[in-house]
Amino acid sequence: MTTLALVLLVAAQAAPAPAPTVATEKARLDAIMAELDARVAALKDLDNRERSVTNSLGELDESLARLAEESERARARHDALVAELAALETATGLDERSLTQARRRLEARLRVLYVSGEGGAVRALLGAEGFQELALRRRYVRELADNDAKLVNEVARIERAVADQRARLRAAAVDVEQVQRQLDQQRTLMAATRAERGAALTRIATERSLTLRQQRELEQRRVAISNLIGRLAEDSVRRPMVPARPRGRLGRNLPWPAEGVVIRKFGIVVEKESKAEIVSNGLEIRADQGAPVQAIADGRVAFVGWMRGFGRLVIVDHGSAVHTLSGHLSKAAVAVGDEVRRGQTIAFVGDTESTNGPKLYFELRENGRPRDPTPLLRAGP
User: pTM of the predicted model, to two decimals?
Assistant: First the structure.
Protein backbone atom coordinates (compact mmCIF):
# COMPACT_ATOMS: atom_id res chain seq x y z
CA MET A 1 0.00 0.00 0.00
CA THR A 2 2.74 2.46 0.95
CA THR A 3 4.74 1.65 -2.19
CA LEU A 4 1.69 2.07 -4.40
CA ALA A 5 0.86 5.45 -2.88
CA LEU A 6 4.46 6.64 -3.31
CA VAL A 7 4.51 5.62 -7.00
CA LEU A 8 1.23 7.39 -7.66
CA LEU A 9 2.36 10.54 -5.83
CA VAL A 10 5.59 10.81 -7.84
CA ALA A 11 3.81 10.10 -11.15
CA ALA A 12 1.20 12.80 -10.46
CA GLN A 13 3.81 15.58 -10.41
CA ALA A 14 3.47 17.56 -13.66
CA ALA A 15 6.46 18.03 -15.95
CA PRO A 16 7.68 21.65 -16.33
CA ALA A 17 6.23 23.52 -19.30
CA PRO A 18 8.61 23.98 -22.23
CA ALA A 19 9.88 27.47 -22.94
CA PRO A 20 8.09 29.56 -25.59
CA THR A 21 9.34 28.94 -29.12
CA VAL A 22 8.71 32.35 -30.74
CA ALA A 23 11.73 34.26 -29.41
CA THR A 24 13.55 34.13 -32.74
CA GLU A 25 10.56 35.50 -34.62
CA LYS A 26 10.20 38.33 -32.08
CA ALA A 27 13.88 39.22 -32.37
CA ARG A 28 13.56 39.46 -36.16
CA LEU A 29 10.46 41.61 -35.83
CA ASP A 30 12.15 43.95 -33.36
CA ALA A 31 15.08 44.39 -35.76
CA ILE A 32 12.72 45.17 -38.67
CA MET A 33 10.78 47.66 -36.54
CA ALA A 34 13.98 49.53 -35.65
CA GLU A 35 15.00 49.48 -39.31
CA LEU A 36 11.61 50.83 -40.42
CA ASP A 37 11.80 53.67 -37.88
CA ALA A 38 15.09 54.79 -39.45
CA ARG A 39 13.72 54.40 -43.00
CA VAL A 40 10.58 56.43 -42.23
CA ALA A 41 12.70 59.17 -40.64
CA ALA A 42 14.80 59.32 -43.81
CA LEU A 43 11.71 59.50 -46.02
CA LYS A 44 10.44 62.46 -43.99
CA ASP A 45 13.70 64.26 -44.69
CA LEU A 46 13.30 64.56 -48.47
CA ASP A 47 14.23 68.25 -48.38
CA ASN A 48 17.77 67.22 -47.49
CA ARG A 49 19.45 67.47 -50.89
CA GLU A 50 22.27 65.22 -49.71
CA ARG A 51 19.77 62.43 -49.32
CA SER A 52 18.68 60.48 -52.39
CA VAL A 53 14.92 60.43 -52.98
CA THR A 54 15.24 57.12 -54.81
CA ASN A 55 17.39 55.55 -52.10
CA SER A 56 15.07 56.72 -49.32
CA LEU A 57 12.05 55.17 -51.03
CA GLY A 58 13.94 52.02 -52.02
CA GLU A 59 15.35 51.36 -48.56
CA LEU A 60 11.91 51.78 -47.01
CA ASP A 61 10.34 49.43 -49.56
CA GLU A 62 13.03 46.82 -48.97
CA SER A 63 12.35 46.96 -45.23
CA LEU A 64 8.60 46.77 -45.88
CA ALA A 65 9.19 43.69 -48.03
CA ARG A 66 11.10 42.07 -45.18
CA LEU A 67 8.23 42.87 -42.84
CA ALA A 68 5.77 41.32 -45.30
CA GLU A 69 7.92 38.17 -45.49
CA GLU A 70 8.11 38.07 -41.69
CA SER A 71 4.33 38.40 -41.54
CA GLU A 72 3.94 35.45 -43.91
CA ARG A 73 6.22 33.37 -41.69
CA ALA A 74 4.30 34.46 -38.59
CA ARG A 75 0.97 33.61 -40.22
CA ALA A 76 2.24 30.16 -41.23
CA ARG A 77 3.62 29.67 -37.70
CA HIS A 78 0.29 30.74 -36.20
CA ASP A 79 -1.69 28.35 -38.39
CA ALA A 80 0.70 25.50 -37.58
CA LEU A 81 0.42 26.23 -33.84
CA VAL A 82 -3.37 26.32 -33.99
CA ALA A 83 -3.36 22.92 -35.74
CA GLU A 84 -0.88 21.58 -33.19
CA LEU A 85 -3.04 22.91 -30.35
CA ALA A 86 -6.12 21.13 -31.73
CA ALA A 87 -4.17 17.87 -32.12
CA LEU A 88 -2.80 18.18 -28.58
CA GLU A 89 -6.27 18.78 -27.18
CA THR A 90 -7.51 15.63 -28.91
CA ALA A 91 -4.52 13.57 -27.73
CA THR A 92 -4.84 14.92 -24.19
CA GLY A 93 -8.52 14.00 -24.10
CA LEU A 94 -7.73 10.44 -25.22
CA ASP A 95 -4.92 10.10 -22.64
CA GLU A 96 -7.14 11.44 -19.86
CA ARG A 97 -9.84 8.90 -20.69
CA SER A 98 -7.21 6.13 -20.66
CA LEU A 99 -5.95 7.42 -17.32
CA THR A 100 -9.44 7.37 -15.84
CA GLN A 101 -9.94 3.75 -16.93
CA ALA A 102 -6.53 2.66 -15.62
CA ARG A 103 -7.12 4.35 -12.26
CA ARG A 104 -10.47 2.56 -11.93
CA ARG A 105 -8.77 -0.78 -12.50
CA LEU A 106 -6.08 0.11 -9.95
CA GLU A 107 -8.66 1.24 -7.39
CA ALA A 108 -10.55 -2.06 -7.83
CA ARG A 109 -7.33 -4.00 -7.28
CA LEU A 110 -6.47 -1.92 -4.19
CA ARG A 111 -9.90 -2.68 -2.71
CA VAL A 112 -9.28 -6.40 -3.21
CA LEU A 113 -5.90 -6.08 -1.46
CA TYR A 114 -7.48 -4.11 1.37
CA VAL A 115 -10.20 -6.72 1.88
CA SER A 116 -7.66 -9.54 1.94
CA GLY A 117 -5.65 -7.65 4.54
CA GLU A 118 -1.94 -7.88 5.31
CA GLY A 119 -0.42 -11.29 4.79
CA GLY A 120 -3.13 -12.40 2.42
CA ALA A 121 -0.62 -13.87 0.00
CA VAL A 122 1.14 -15.77 2.79
CA ARG A 123 -2.14 -17.22 4.04
CA ALA A 124 -2.99 -18.29 0.52
CA LEU A 125 0.30 -20.19 0.29
CA LEU A 126 0.01 -21.73 3.74
CA GLY A 127 -3.49 -23.00 2.94
CA ALA A 128 -2.16 -25.23 0.15
CA GLU A 129 -2.68 -28.95 0.52
CA GLY A 130 0.28 -30.65 -0.99
CA PHE A 131 3.32 -29.61 -2.96
CA GLN A 132 1.57 -29.43 -6.34
CA GLU A 133 -1.13 -27.06 -5.06
CA LEU A 134 1.54 -24.94 -3.37
CA ALA A 135 3.40 -24.60 -6.67
CA LEU A 136 0.19 -23.57 -8.43
CA ARG A 137 -0.64 -21.03 -5.70
CA ARG A 138 2.90 -19.63 -5.82
CA ARG A 139 2.63 -19.12 -9.57
CA TYR A 140 -0.79 -17.51 -9.19
CA VAL A 141 0.46 -15.13 -6.47
CA ARG A 142 3.51 -14.24 -8.60
CA GLU A 143 1.27 -13.51 -11.61
CA LEU A 144 -0.98 -11.34 -9.45
CA ALA A 145 2.07 -9.43 -8.21
CA ASP A 146 3.36 -8.99 -11.78
CA ASN A 147 -0.02 -7.77 -12.96
CA ASP A 148 -0.25 -5.38 -10.00
CA ALA A 149 3.20 -3.97 -10.88
CA LYS A 150 2.22 -3.61 -14.54
CA LEU A 151 -0.99 -1.82 -13.55
CA VAL A 152 0.90 0.59 -11.31
CA ASN A 153 3.45 1.23 -14.07
CA GLU A 154 0.68 1.75 -16.62
CA VAL A 155 -1.04 4.32 -14.42
CA ALA A 156 2.28 6.10 -13.82
CA ARG A 157 3.09 6.06 -17.55
CA ILE A 158 -0.29 7.47 -18.55
CA GLU A 159 -0.07 10.13 -15.82
CA ARG A 160 3.33 11.17 -17.14
CA ALA A 161 1.91 11.31 -20.67
CA VAL A 162 -1.06 13.40 -19.54
CA ALA A 163 1.23 15.76 -17.60
CA ASP A 164 3.47 16.12 -20.65
CA GLN A 165 0.47 16.76 -22.92
CA ARG A 166 -0.89 19.38 -20.52
CA ALA A 167 2.50 21.11 -20.39
CA ARG A 168 2.70 21.11 -24.19
CA LEU A 169 -0.85 22.44 -24.35
CA ARG A 170 0.06 25.33 -22.05
CA ALA A 171 3.20 26.10 -24.08
CA ALA A 172 1.36 25.91 -27.41
CA ALA A 173 -1.39 28.19 -26.12
CA VAL A 174 1.24 30.73 -25.01
CA ASP A 175 2.91 30.51 -28.43
CA VAL A 176 -0.41 31.03 -30.25
CA GLU A 177 -1.15 34.09 -28.14
CA GLN A 178 2.34 35.55 -28.67
CA VAL A 179 2.31 34.96 -32.42
CA GLN A 180 -1.17 36.51 -32.68
CA ARG A 181 0.12 39.60 -30.88
CA GLN A 182 3.05 39.75 -33.29
CA LEU A 183 0.68 39.51 -36.27
CA ASP A 184 -1.47 42.35 -34.89
CA GLN A 185 1.65 44.42 -34.31
CA GLN A 186 2.91 43.72 -37.83
CA ARG A 187 -0.41 44.72 -39.41
CA THR A 188 -0.46 47.98 -37.45
CA LEU A 189 3.15 48.73 -38.35
CA MET A 190 2.58 47.89 -42.02
CA ALA A 191 -0.43 50.21 -42.23
CA ALA A 192 1.36 53.08 -40.48
CA THR A 193 4.46 52.71 -42.66
CA ARG A 194 2.45 52.58 -45.87
CA ALA A 195 0.63 55.74 -44.79
CA GLU A 196 3.99 57.49 -44.36
CA ARG A 197 5.09 56.13 -47.72
CA GLY A 198 1.92 57.45 -49.37
CA ALA A 199 2.48 60.90 -47.90
CA ALA A 200 6.04 60.92 -49.25
CA LEU A 201 4.89 59.82 -52.71
CA THR A 202 2.35 62.65 -52.75
CA ARG A 203 5.14 65.12 -52.00
CA ILE A 204 7.35 63.66 -54.73
CA ALA A 205 4.51 63.87 -57.26
CA THR A 206 3.40 67.41 -56.38
CA GLU A 207 6.67 69.19 -55.62
CA ARG A 208 8.50 69.89 -58.84
CA SER A 209 11.93 70.01 -57.22
CA LEU A 210 11.49 66.53 -55.74
CA THR A 211 10.07 65.19 -59.01
CA LEU A 212 13.05 66.46 -61.00
CA ARG A 213 15.51 65.14 -58.41
CA GLN A 214 13.97 61.69 -58.60
CA GLN A 215 13.96 61.72 -62.41
CA ARG A 216 17.67 62.59 -62.46
CA GLU A 217 18.36 59.83 -59.97
CA LEU A 218 16.39 57.34 -62.04
CA GLU A 219 18.47 58.23 -65.08
CA GLN A 220 21.54 57.29 -63.05
CA ARG A 221 19.86 54.05 -62.02
CA ARG A 222 19.21 53.21 -65.66
CA VAL A 223 22.98 53.42 -66.18
CA ALA A 224 23.40 50.99 -63.28
CA ILE A 225 20.93 48.61 -64.96
CA SER A 226 22.87 48.87 -68.22
CA ASN A 227 26.12 48.05 -66.41
CA LEU A 228 24.52 45.05 -64.69
CA ILE A 229 23.11 43.72 -67.97
CA GLY A 230 26.49 44.26 -69.63
CA ARG A 231 28.19 42.13 -67.01
CA LEU A 232 25.53 39.43 -67.31
CA ALA A 233 25.87 39.48 -71.12
CA GLU A 234 29.65 39.07 -70.86
CA ASP A 235 29.19 36.15 -68.46
CA SER A 236 26.66 34.60 -70.83
CA VAL A 237 29.12 34.82 -73.74
CA ARG A 238 31.99 33.35 -71.70
CA ARG A 239 29.92 30.47 -70.37
CA PRO A 240 26.50 30.12 -72.04
CA MET A 241 23.80 29.65 -69.44
CA VAL A 242 21.18 28.38 -71.87
CA PRO A 243 21.37 26.74 -75.31
CA ALA A 244 22.41 29.37 -77.85
CA ARG A 245 19.93 30.51 -80.48
CA PRO A 246 20.53 32.50 -83.67
CA ARG A 247 21.24 36.17 -83.01
CA GLY A 248 18.06 38.18 -82.56
CA ARG A 249 15.81 35.13 -82.92
CA LEU A 250 13.94 35.34 -79.62
CA GLY A 251 10.79 34.53 -81.51
CA ARG A 252 7.49 36.31 -82.12
CA ASN A 253 3.94 36.06 -80.85
CA LEU A 254 5.39 35.80 -77.35
CA PRO A 255 3.15 35.95 -74.28
CA TRP A 256 2.97 39.24 -72.41
CA PRO A 257 4.84 39.15 -69.12
CA ALA A 258 1.68 40.15 -67.21
CA GLU A 259 -1.95 40.95 -67.86
CA GLY A 260 -2.74 44.65 -67.59
CA VAL A 261 -2.68 48.01 -69.34
CA VAL A 262 0.46 49.59 -70.79
CA ILE A 263 0.86 52.96 -69.06
CA ARG A 264 4.28 53.80 -70.49
CA LYS A 265 5.60 52.68 -73.84
CA PHE A 266 9.13 52.11 -75.03
CA GLY A 267 11.02 55.16 -76.32
CA ILE A 268 10.88 58.87 -75.54
CA VAL A 269 7.91 59.85 -73.41
CA VAL A 270 6.84 63.21 -71.96
CA GLU A 271 5.88 63.38 -68.30
CA LYS A 272 2.45 64.98 -67.83
CA GLU A 273 3.31 66.92 -64.68
CA SER A 274 6.89 68.02 -65.30
CA LYS A 275 6.69 68.07 -69.13
CA ALA A 276 10.16 66.55 -69.08
CA GLU A 277 11.22 64.19 -71.87
CA ILE A 278 12.25 60.81 -70.50
CA VAL A 279 13.81 57.90 -72.32
CA SER A 280 11.87 54.76 -71.45
CA ASN A 281 13.97 51.65 -71.96
CA GLY A 282 11.04 49.35 -71.35
CA LEU A 283 7.31 49.04 -70.77
CA GLU A 284 5.30 49.87 -67.68
CA ILE A 285 2.21 47.70 -67.32
CA ARG A 286 -0.48 48.56 -64.79
CA ALA A 287 -1.50 45.29 -63.14
CA ASP A 288 -3.09 44.05 -59.94
CA GLN A 289 -0.96 43.63 -56.84
CA GLY A 290 0.14 39.99 -56.67
CA ALA A 291 -0.71 39.20 -60.31
CA PRO A 292 1.64 36.58 -61.80
CA VAL A 293 4.59 37.64 -63.95
CA GLN A 294 5.67 35.06 -66.53
CA ALA A 295 8.75 34.38 -68.61
CA ILE A 296 8.15 35.36 -72.23
CA ALA A 297 10.59 32.67 -73.47
CA ASP A 298 12.77 29.83 -72.20
CA GLY A 299 15.86 30.79 -70.26
CA ARG A 300 17.71 30.70 -66.98
CA VAL A 301 17.42 33.13 -64.09
CA ALA A 302 20.52 35.35 -63.99
CA PHE A 303 19.59 37.79 -61.20
CA VAL A 304 17.14 38.03 -58.33
CA GLY A 305 17.43 40.96 -55.96
CA TRP A 306 16.92 44.67 -55.43
CA MET A 307 17.92 47.51 -57.72
CA ARG A 308 17.33 51.07 -56.59
CA GLY A 309 14.64 52.70 -58.69
CA PHE A 310 13.28 49.35 -59.88
CA GLY A 311 12.53 47.60 -56.59
CA ARG A 312 12.64 43.84 -56.50
CA LEU A 313 14.02 42.66 -59.83
CA VAL A 314 14.26 39.37 -61.75
CA ILE A 315 16.47 39.06 -64.84
CA VAL A 316 16.23 36.07 -67.17
CA ASP A 317 19.02 35.13 -69.59
CA HIS A 318 17.51 33.76 -72.81
CA GLY A 319 20.85 32.99 -74.47
CA SER A 320 22.78 34.85 -77.19
CA ALA A 321 23.11 37.87 -74.82
CA VAL A 322 19.34 38.38 -74.75
CA HIS A 323 17.89 39.29 -71.33
CA THR A 324 14.51 40.32 -69.97
CA LEU A 325 14.03 42.33 -66.79
CA SER A 326 10.95 42.43 -64.56
CA GLY A 327 10.85 45.12 -61.87
CA HIS A 328 8.71 46.55 -59.03
CA LEU A 329 7.90 42.96 -58.01
CA SER A 330 6.26 42.05 -54.72
CA LYS A 331 8.07 38.74 -54.58
CA ALA A 332 10.13 36.41 -56.77
CA ALA A 333 9.07 32.83 -57.50
CA VAL A 334 12.49 31.71 -58.77
CA ALA A 335 16.13 31.75 -57.71
CA VAL A 336 19.36 32.44 -59.58
CA GLY A 337 20.26 29.48 -61.79
CA ASP A 338 16.70 28.17 -62.15
CA GLU A 339 15.72 27.00 -65.62
CA VAL A 340 12.44 28.60 -66.69
CA ARG A 341 10.07 27.81 -69.52
CA ARG A 342 7.98 30.14 -71.63
CA GLY A 343 4.82 31.05 -69.73
CA GLN A 344 6.21 29.96 -66.34
CA THR A 345 5.48 32.23 -63.37
CA ILE A 346 8.73 33.82 -62.23
CA ALA A 347 7.41 36.54 -59.90
CA PHE A 348 4.40 38.58 -58.80
CA VAL A 349 3.44 42.18 -59.51
CA GLY A 350 4.10 44.67 -56.74
CA ASP A 351 4.75 48.33 -56.01
CA THR A 352 8.29 48.11 -54.66
CA GLU A 353 9.95 51.45 -55.41
CA SER A 354 7.00 52.42 -57.58
CA THR A 355 5.70 55.96 -57.19
CA ASN A 356 2.32 55.29 -58.76
CA GLY A 357 1.00 52.01 -57.41
CA PRO A 358 1.30 48.36 -58.45
CA LYS A 359 2.80 47.86 -61.89
CA LEU A 360 5.33 45.79 -63.80
CA TYR A 361 8.39 47.37 -65.36
CA PHE A 362 9.55 45.15 -68.23
CA GLU A 363 12.66 45.46 -70.37
CA LEU A 364 14.09 43.44 -73.23
CA ARG A 365 17.82 43.82 -73.87
CA GLU A 366 20.03 42.39 -76.59
CA ASN A 367 23.79 42.63 -76.10
CA GLY A 368 23.07 44.99 -73.23
CA ARG A 369 21.05 47.41 -75.36
CA PRO A 370 17.34 48.07 -74.75
CA ARG A 371 14.97 46.91 -77.46
CA ASP A 372 11.26 47.54 -77.87
CA PRO A 373 9.60 44.22 -76.93
CA THR A 374 6.17 45.20 -78.28
CA PRO A 375 6.67 43.84 -81.87
CA LEU A 376 7.60 40.44 -80.42
CA LEU A 377 4.58 40.19 -78.14
CA ARG A 378 1.07 39.08 -78.96
CA ALA A 379 -1.41 41.80 -79.80
CA GLY A 380 -2.55 43.28 -76.50
CA PRO A 381 -1.29 42.34 -73.02
Answer: 0.71
- Annotated domain spans of the chain: 2-206, 210-376
Tell me if the domain spanning 210-376 has CATH number 1.10.1060.10: no
Report the CATH fold assignment for 2-206: Helix Hairpins (1.10.287)
pLDDT digits (tens, 9 = 90+) for 65-112: 988 888 888 888 888 888 887 877 777 777 777 777 767 776 766 666
Query: Can you tell me the distance from the alpha carbon of 160 to that of 140, in angstroms, rounded to the nearest whole number?
Result: 30
Contacts (Cβ under 8 Å, ≥6 apart) of 249: 320
Neighbours of 379 (CB within 10 A): 7
Which long-range CB contacts under 8 A does 9-17 form with residues at least 24 apart?
10/156, 11/155, 11/156, 11/157, 11/159, 11/160, 12/159, 12/163, 13/163, 14/163, 14/166, 14/167, 15/160, 15/163, 15/164, 15/167, 16/167, 17/167, 17/168, 17/170, 17/171
Pairing of strands 261-264, 345-349: unpaired
